[in-house]
Amino acid sequence: MLKIDRRLITSFDWITFSIVVFICIIGILTIYSATRPPLDEGEQPPFYVKQLIWLMIAVIFLFIFVTFDYAKLKNFWLIFYIVGILLLILVLFIGKTAMGAKRWINLGFFSFQPSEIFKIIFIISISAFLENKNSPLSVKDTLKTLFIFGMIPFLLIVKQPDLGTALLILSITFIMIIYKGLQIRLLLLFLSILFISIFFLWEILWEGLREYQRNRIVAFIDPTIDPKGIGYNIMQSIITVGSGGFWGKGFLEGTQGPLKFLPERHTDFIFPIFAEEWGFIGCLFLLTLYFIIFMRCFQTSTIAKDNFGKFLSLGFTSVFILYFFINIGMTLGIMPVVGVPLPFMSYGGTTLLANFIGIALVINVRMRRFELFYP
User: pTM value?
Assistant: First the structure.
């Protein structure tokens, strides 16, 4: 007979789970509003229905991923990592091309984005790799971590191209290394190399960017330079956010989404649609919900029973925070547009599932923090 430890049930983080599901419901309602046909003409695209189905699937996966001890994952990190790298290579050859990028593998009945699955594998793998390393990291271990977990996936994901996710992977690698402990002289060396290389490599890096990526940087610096072209997305996003005012126009009363002024309104630019309908007060409420999630996830990294749990929680917390600030920043025009979705709100089944698995593993770490002290 299966015996369930009652402490696991009572230790389940219902607060984080409830807030995450609530944000997802807000996202589904916003997707519905953003994609509705103007003046009730035409058919409603099924995006919100698909997202609701993916939410139910994601919740099931969350409860599956909290049932086992997360510590067992570190025994298979190398296998996971090899599979993840193979998926990133595979998508370059057989991936489905959409909007000029090969980011999806089509299995017929559904498509999935390997880079989203890789984020989960990446955090599990780098957490297991760093767990038993000496602190601060030696030069050898630092360079090995940067190459294996930073540069290899970065180059493969950039090739798709998906610059946003590639930079995220590289950023998380640096965050994990710094959290583990980086020798001061090595840190100073990296900063010096970075500072010097900016002047010499800028032109090379600029030429290596695709035209649309260069346009995004130009539009970020001055979106008014071409308001109907490369600066259109940012200008429309800022207009949409501003039109919400203090109280907002009300649910289903926004115009920028259904009238299709704002591109990618149900994915990368879902926040402006929400801001238009719910205003400053609604945005403040939404940001508060996100910050509660971030604080609880970070707290989990401080109370975890082992180093693997600490790194696991920190890794996923960093992903959520970076995605959040980059997405909000680009919709407000204070960061370049890099195609990063807003966690738990933006449309996308694979992304939602990956985020829920990440939250599940953080809750898993929090649930089992007492096992260090009790048999």
Answer: 0.89
